[in-house]
Design a protein that fits this description.
Blueprint: H1 4-18, E1 24-30, H2 37-47, H3 82-93, E2 98-108, E3 118-127, E4 131-132, E5 137-149, E6 152-164, H4 187-194, E7 199-203, E8 209-210, E9 225-229, E10 233-242, E11 254-261, E12 266-270, E13 284-293, E14 296-303, H5 342-345, E15 370-378, H6 381-390, H7 401-406, H8 416-431, E16 436-444, E17 453-464, E18 467-476, E19 479-489
Antiparallel strand pairs: 1-3, 2-6, 2-16, 3-5, 4-5, 5-6, 7-8, 7-9, 10-11, 10-13, 11-12, 13-14, 15-17, 16-19, 17-18, 18-19
Helix pairs in contact: 2-6
Amino acid sequence: MADATEESPVRDLCQRLRAFEGRPAAVFGEGREPVNSSMISHWCEALGDTDPAYTGKDPIAPATMLQAWTMGGLSAHQSRSPAIDELFALLDDAGYTAVVAADCEQEYLRALRPGQTITFDSVIESVSPRKTTRLGAGHFVTTRMEIRADGEPAGTHRFRILKYAPRKAVKERAAERPRPVVNRDNAGFWEGVAARRLLFQRCEACGTPRFPWLPGCGSCGSPEWTAVEASGAGTVHSYVVMHHPPFPAFDPPYAVALVELAEGVRMISNITGVAADRVRVGMRVSVEFSRVAPDLELPVFRPVALPGGGSLPGGPAPTGRGSDGGGAPRGAGEARAGTAGPADILPRAEAPATGPDPMDGFAPMGGGRRGLPPLTIPVTRTLIIAGAIASRDYKDVHHDPEAARAAGSPDIFMNILTTNGLVGRYITDHLGPGAVLRKVAIRLGAPNHPGDTLVLTGTVTVVRGRTAEVAVVGANRLGRHVTGTVTVTLPEPEVIA
């Protein structure tokens, strides 16, 4: 049990932190510059976004630039309230000196165009109790911002950061998996694994199969048994998805399953080859052997594709651009759920001819889900720094390796504004001009460091009329960098005269 004298300061600090909830973080804030073509061009060049809506005679700003227009730059904002400075000073004094963004949720009410003046107000929504994270212990601070363009509501921005006490910087390396305990009772099983064979025991007296390996039969007590090689085929009987706490050599989230083999015995192992949130009870799997160290292989299970190319069982995933179908500017108007196109209203023979419909191939398939093609993005040092500068984020951990190491990171890492922009680009790259982002909500996980490769994938989860929700996942060598939801609206197909 923890000593009461140690708990008291923690409780006292939490109470003082909670007192800041509901207080303003910024009052009558104003963007450092109006919306302008130069920043839009810089942003698009840094993120590789070539959408024609952001260029030409009447360009709009990418929706995901919403926060960038509110950033204070090198000298920070003069509109910051005393409350937010006092809160951060209190956390700094308690040793929580480092900061990293965790979540970002943006809703877009109208398109932003060059020349518009940005104003905003922000409030401290919540301060969490002390949390232990991979980076170190600290407190999450959530703020909510209302953003206006020329006095009219333009969007909302909810932002969560972690103020933490950085652990000693260590060189990032792959940690070694824990070694299995091998004894005289289970040595035969591990000898089989070393030969890439999955073995279980069968009692010679009563024929009962058993796993894990034991010295005697649980049914009849006989000590006589024979080692039998399993086919490796099985089904997921039950499973859990591990998120926290993190352990060395394991990158959460990951699935730990109880697999029932075709021979009738069950064993616990990891499920590989599929995202943890796609594992389902009853999923067919097959054993494979994964080398986790030069001298160690472990049996794991990979889902088996259904005959005829059918998809594996799947379920809900995190939820999340658009035109209102009436020629409204991108980013303007409300989603029109349930809107029907001309071909849905008129009899087929009388329907006017239309051009290609962006919704074609976008509607969900079986189970309400359909995958989007992946987007692979090399994470270079230039991308990380250019993205931070384009978003007016001059926090040193995004451009100074020494500062990043002092904060517990092995190198500089990508800021959340860049990640948010890349998620938006992924959706609009796929759907093309005319698509309008309505909402993007993301959560960061494993950081993006120089030398990583970010692979973005998306799954359509909901389609309502011309509006769809897409679950997006971005993974790198360390695991999931970003998960989130994008809500996007697509234009009506063009009527051909």
